[in-house]
Amino acid sequence: MSGWGSWLKGDAAAGAAGGAPAASGSNFHAISDKVAQAALFGPLEASDLEWTCAGGFTTETQTWYSVLHDGSFATSQIIHSAVGLWYPQVQMTFKYFNPKTGKKIWKSVNVTKFAAQSDKRSSKAAEFSVNFSTTDAGDDKYTITANLDTDLQLSWSFTRPSAVKGWKLGSGPKGGFSYFGSNPDSPEGYVIHRFWPVAESEGHIISHGAAIDAKGTGMFVHAIQGMRPNLVAAKWNFANFQAQDDKLGRVSGVMMEFTTTPDYGSVEKEQQRQSLTVNIGSIVAEGKLISVTAATRTAGAAESQPSRKSNSYVKHLDKTLDQDTGYQAPQSIEYHWQGPLLDASSGKGDLQNTVEASLKVDLGKPYPSSETHGLVDKVDVLAEIPYMVRKLVNYVAGTKPYIYQTLNEATLKIKLPEAYGGDVKGETEVKGSLFEEHTFISG
Question: Any idea where the Svf1-like N-terminal domain is (predicted)?
C-alpha cells in the first residue's frame, strides 16, 4: 500500500501466524501476470471505492495526495486495521511540508466511532467526516473535514475530473487482486490498489489559526491488504508525478511496486523460492488516461533481463549505507513506464502502439538527512503504529520498517506513438513535481 498504510507490511514474527510455506509450486499469483497487456485497464465500479472494514488480518487505507500551487505537499490518510483484534484500530493522519519555508505539520490521531456511511464510500468518526459525491458535471469528489487537534483543522476536497478515468488492473470483481497462497480461489491473503491518477484539491488547512490554501494537483488511492502482516512484502516503491504542461496539459505518472518476501513467490532453480516484484502504473496526458502499465519480475533477476510482459520498473541507483536505518538506500531512483496506448472508446490497449515514460530523480545522500534532496520525512514505522497493533504484532529481531518520503521537481520524458490522437507525438519532456516513497521492511 502507498503511504502510511505501509506500516503493517513485511517480516513480523511468525507468532502472528504460521511459518513459511514449503517451496513447491507457485504460491503467489500476481495480478500483473494474470491480466493480458491488452486488458490492463479496469474501470472503477462504485463498489471498488466502498469501505470493506474487514476483520481478520486486514489493513485498509484511503489516501489523498496533493502538491499545492505554492509547491508545498499535503496528504490525508485513513487507516482501518483489524490485525486480529476484536475492535479495529482506526487512524487519521495528516502531513504537510513546505520545502521553501521548512514548515512541517504531522498529526496522527486514533479516531473513535468510525463508521462507513450508507453509500459505503463516505465515512465518519468523532474527529472527521469524509463525504463522497458526484457533481452535476459528472466529476467524483471527496470532501474532507476534520478537527485533529486544537491547532489543526482540515476543510478540503479532492475532485476527479470525469474525463480522467480511475482504474484498477484488470476489469471485473477480481480485477486488481494479487493473491497469496497456492490456491487463488481460496487464498491465504491478497493485495489490491484502486487509483484516481488525477485529482484536483481545494479548500483550506487551518494550522494554529492560520489558513493554508489547499488548491493543488494530486491523486487518490484506495488500498487493501487482506493478509497476515508478516508475509506480504519486503519492500515497496511509490511514485506520484503531477504536472500542468503547456503542450500536454494535465499530466500524471503514477507507479506502485512491491516485492514479496522469500516466503511467497515462484520456484525457480533448485526448488528455491524466488521473491517476485509486481509493478503497476499509469500515464495521463492532456487530461486523459492514455496507458495503464503492468510488469512482473523475479527479484533476483539481472538488471539486463527485462520484466515479464512490459519493461516497467523501478531502479534504486548508487546505493549507500544510511546509518540512521541500517539500509542500503538509493542516492537516485529511476522509474520507467511501458504500456499499450489505451483506446478510450473500448477500454482496450493497442498492442501495436506503445506509450513509454521515464523519470530519474536525484536524492542526494540518505545520511545525514540534511544531505537528502527534498526529504519530507524518514519514518520509523514501528514508532508510528497504534499501541495495540504494536503490542499484538511481534516483529522479528532485525526487522526495522522505514519509509523514505521525498518531494522534488522532476522531468517526465514521454514518448507517444503516431497513433496517439492528441496534438503532440513522439518524445516530449514535462516538468512537474514528484512525491515518492521507497520503503524497506526487511533485508
Answer: 59-225
Name the 3-class secondary structure at 37. helix
**59/80 Cα distance (integer angstroms):** 6
CATH number at 235 reads 2.40.370.10
Judged on CB neighbours under 10 Å (0-12, 13-18, 19+), 397 is: exposed
Q: Give the pLDDT of residue 149.
A: 95
- What was the pLDDT predicted at 110? 92
Residues forming a β-bridge with 416: 426
CB neighbourhood size of 390 (10 A): 16
Run means of pLDDT, 10 residues per run, the chain, 443 residues: 37 35 71 96 97 90 97 96 77 96 94 96 98 96 97 98 97 95 91 97 97 97 83 90 96 96 78 89 97 93 84 96 95 98 95 97 97 94 62 50 95 96 91 97 74
SS3 content of the chain, % helix, strand, coil (to 5): 10, 55, 40
User: CB-hemisphere CA count at 13 Å for 167?
Assistant: 30
Amino acid code (one letter) for 343: D
Asked if 400 and 347 count as a contact pair (C-beta separation under 8 A), the reply is: no
Burial class (CB in 10 A: 0-12, 13-18, 19+), 1: buried
Count of residues in the chain = 443
Residue 325: Cβ within 10 Å count: 17
In angstroms, the CA 212 to CA 99 distance is: 14
Q: What range defines the domain where residue 166 resides?
A: 3-440
Domains: count for the chain = 1
Predicted model pTM? 0.92
